[in-house]
Amino acid sequence: MTTAATSDAALLAELRGLLRDALGVDPVQPIAPETRFFADLGLASIDAVVLGEAIQGHYGRPVPFDRLMADLGSRQERDLSIGELIEFLKLHL
Amino acid sequence: MPRITANGLTFHVQRSGAGPDVVLIHGLTGDLSIWFLCRAMQVLAEGSRVTAYDLRGHGYSDAPPSEYTSLDHARDLIALLDALEIDRARLVGHSFGAVIAVHAAVLAPERVEALVLSDPYFPALRHLEDLSRWGHWQNFRQEAEEAGVSLSSDTWYDLTTFFDQVLHFDDDRLLRFRQAVGLPGWRRVLRLAETTCGHDSKLIAGLSTELISSVSQRCLALYGEASPFLSTADFLIGNLPDCRGRRIPGAKHRAPEENPEGFVEAVREFLESIHSEKTREVYP
């Protein structure tokens, strides 16, 4: 059985790969759970749309990214940490 | 990522739902993600086949160095309709996206069934607007100032002036600015700043006052209740043969962000009014 910690680490590693391959993001400072999608990686909501597609393609199943985007649209700071994305994926994968 | 080749360029396209075709057209320096953030993509897909795309120079579409007038964008749109085999569509454009929608309706009226014009301002109608009279101008300028951009009522709409300033920001100022303006992808704004988009978007490019007034499809002139462009709204309602008006409460120029629920509901109701009228035509 996979422990939660392992699956967090596995998801983080897979997200790093998807960010690199789908968005061309491969920062010198490794991406961590506290890394912010927008403020730290310089990405934008359009990148989240494309990453959402890449994630669904990678796992071969639909993920309710629409809801995550709508939630993001209603946030004051309009930002999302990689850790939050991992929690979202754990709920829906 | 769905990519479609049209008019010699590759466009990033997203689609959802089934039914009559609706095409969503974002504004300058934006991208199609706005339609996800305001939930238009999800809500409108309940009764329509919704297609959103990134304009040339924006998002994940190609960015040629030049040709960014509303005419160039309208030709892209018609070529996309061809490539996607959409015979006729309802167009929903925000800001310059609505100028593109009108230009497409002028070029190919048979391809456009109806239009939602969300807060456009037209180069040919510039004489109608005097920003210094806009009640929110001082606030707007103050907010821009806090984000690090100086605006004047003569040049605020001028993307070239804007690009000149933001190209020279340091990291802190840049992050403050990006947060203030809703965090567009920085690399994409820089890519756009290298093109003629700022200059070209000010050109009339054939979309004269007379041609704007000739658009006879059903239109909804949808403006923020505190929009800087309400004189343009009045012009559209008064001069287009079949144009009704609606104001979005709590919104200035960016209703999809400032009041997303109000914006999407207004668009949905307008599209449904076309559905029900068509149904009555078929089953009187």
Show the helix and strand layout.
The complex is a heterodimer of chains A (93) and B (284).
Chain A (H helix, E strand, L loop, with lengths): L3 H20 L21 H15 L5 H9 L8 H11 L1
Helix pairs in contact in A: 1-2, 1-4
Chain B lengths: L2 E4 L2 E8 L4 E5 L7 H5 L2 H5 L4 E5 L16 H14 L5 E6 L1 H12 L4 E7 L18 H11 L11 H8 L4 H10 L5 H8 L3 H4 L8 H5 L4 E7 L5 H10 L3 E6 L6 H4 L1 H23 L2
Parallel strand pairs in B: 3-4, 3-5, 5-6, 6-7, 7-8
Antiparallel strand pairs in B: 1-2, 2-4
Helix pairs in contact in B: 3-4, 5-7
Describe the structure.
The complex is a heterodimer of chains A (93) and B (284). With 93 residues, chain A is mainly alpha-helical. Chain A has a single domain (4-92), classed as ACP-like (Non-ribosomal Peptide Synthetase Peptidyl Carrier Protein, Chain A), CATH 1.10.1200.10. Helix content of chain A is 59%, strand content 0%. Chain A has four helices and no strands. In chain A, α1 packs across α4 (82-92). Chain A starts with a helix and ends with a helix. The mean pLDDT of chain A is 85. Chain B is of the alpha/beta class and 284 residues long. Chain B folds into two domains: 3-129 and 201-282, 3-Layer(aba) Sandwich (Rossmann fold), CATH 3.40.50.1820; 131-197, no CATH class. Helices cover 42% and strands 17% of the residues of chain B. In chain B, β1 (3-6) and β2 form a beta hairpin. In chain B, α3 (70-83) packs across α4 and α5 packs antiparallel against α7. The longest helix of chain B has 23 residues, at 260-282. Chain B is globular. The chains are: A mainly alpha (93), B alpha/beta (284). Chains A and B meet through α2 and α3 of A and α1, α7 and α8 of B.
